[in-house]
Design goal:
The structure holds 2 protein chains of 2 kinds.
Chain A lengths: L1 H60 L11 H14 L21 E7 L22 E11 L14 E10 L2
Antiparallel strand pairs in A: 1-2, 2-3
Chain B lengths: L2 H53 L11 H9 L6 E3 L5 E4 L5 E10 L2 H8 L10 E10 L27 E4 L2 E4 H4 L25 E10 L9 E8 L1
Antiparallel strand pairs in B: 1-2, 3-4, 3-7, 5-6, 7-8
The chains are: A alpha+beta, B alpha+beta.
Chain lengths: 173, 232
């Protein structure tokens, strides 16, 4: 009689443990996903930031008045775009276009040159053919890069998409 | 349920509560420091970009809506340095936001420079590092320069360019930084001066300081901020 009662109690406890375990698995997995997703967002943002920094560094060192490697504006723009792509760990692809003004397609890569006295007015072909020269300022941006949390793999449409911008600027050398 | 089993079930709850006290702050701390690290990277980059342009003579001004500050606003928009219009276009620098960038030109005063003060080779700031220009971009109330904790005295900076103004005394016209000890840097020892073998006096040095105020995690980690400074 006693042995039977003990057996019954053990079986009931096993069920209870299973339910507790199941509940805890959801909580623990939720936290693990949260950590991975935050790290994923941080990684994306830091990578884009690194990419534009490298691109602006490339830009200032390879302008049209560079002695060793003079490049006209169009060549340098294409090369800067390529540097962004190369350093972005695949986030910015070869098909990511250059930004238009106003921006119509996102994400896009924005590359602008300015005179130091007019840093809100991008230079254009109408400004002359070699405005990628010292002492102008170059600005390289990745505009509105969308990133979904990894959880979006499972529940695609109900997950908020974050958008990141990354920007860097420097004076042409 | 037996008596011993009932008491064990209470123990499990208490153990759970204790372990929660441990891992919840650990988790929040991990997330908090993770986001702080990436913000620190951005603060360093914006400050470095601003400082390098300042050192290369980009004529920054003190107005938050001037074109030069708009460029910095765009660079730091994810750090709260920008204000926006309804279409999310940057309209200027946020002067009440969480970030400030302080651009300061400094130099060490030589005996030759002192001649402008009273025609002698001595003046109150002889041999001192002094501020010759300062531009504050963003929320100026967040922080002053680490090396000039009281800021520049009122009326000694040009309101547009941030250059230290000049003063006329008798036959002499000289900049305030020769005469006013309040413009001396405090605790600045980063560059040893040596006229013959090292860094010469009267040579401008450009300093950029960036500060981002961070809220912390209420109840766990106090609010503070991310500070960086660099010289060019």
């Amino acid at each position: 009689m006693v042995a039977h009662a003990t057996k019954f109690r053990r079986a009931r406890q096993k069920g209870q443990e299973l339910i507790e375990f199941t509940l805890m698995v959801f909580v623990v997995l939720g936290f693990i996903y949260m950590i991975i997703d935050v790290a994923w967002m941080v990684f994306t943002r830091a990578t884009l930031q690194y990419a534009v920094r490298e691109a602006s560094r490339y830009a200032v060192a390879n302008g049209s008045d560079n002695v060793a490697n003079p490049q006209n504006v169009n060549t340098e723009t294409a090369n800067i775009q390529s540097v962004v792509q190369t350093n972005s760990m695949g986030f910015v692809s070869a098909t990511t276009p250059l930004c238009t003004n106003p921006v119509t397609t996102t994400p896009c890569v924005n590359i602008n040159w300015y005179q130091p006295t007019a840093l809100n007015t991008p230079l254009t072909s109408a400004s002359g053919s070699a405005y990628n020269a010292s002492p102008n300022v170059v600005e390289v941006d990745v505009v509105s890069f969308p990133q979904k949390p990894l959880l979006g793999i499972f529940i695609e449409n109900s997950i908020h998409t974050f958008t990141f911008n990354a920007a860097s600027a420097d004076v042409m050398e | 349920m037996s008596k011993s089993k009932r008491s064990e079930s209470g123990a499990a709850m208490i153990e759970g509560a204790f372990s929660t006290l441990l891992w919840v702050p650990l988790l929040l701390g991990t997330l908090f420091y993770g986001s702080e690290f990436v913000q620190a990277l951005q603060v360093v980059q914006v400050t470095r970009d601003a400082g390098h342009m300042f050192a290369r003579q980009v004529p920054f001004t003190t107005s938050p809506t001037n074109a030069d500050q708009m460029l910095l606003a765009r660079l730091g928009e994810q750090l709260g340095l920008a204000t926006f219009d309804a279409s999310y276009n940057v309209t200027g620098v946020n002067t009440t936001g969480p970030m400030v960038i302080i651009l300061t030109a400094i130099q060490n005063v030589s005996a030759n420079a002192c001649m402008a003060y009273d025609g002698t080779t001595s003046c109150p700031n002889l041999g001192q590092w002094v501020v010759t220009q300062q531009i504050t971009i963003g929320n100026a109330s967040l922080r002053k320069s680490n090396y000039l904790p009281n800021g520049v005295p009122a009326g000694e900076l040009d309101s547009t360019t941030g250059v230290v103004l000049t003063k006329t005394s008798g036959a002499f016209t000289y900049p305030y930084y020769l005469s006013d000890p309040a413009l001396q840097l405090t605790g600045f020892t980063a560059i040893p001066i040596n006229a013959t073998t090292g860094f010469p006096p009267d040579t401008p040095v450009y300093m950029a300081e960036g500060f981002l105020s961070t809220p912390g995690v209420p109840g766990f980690i106090g609010g503070g901020g991310i500070y960086t400074n660099m010289l060019f």
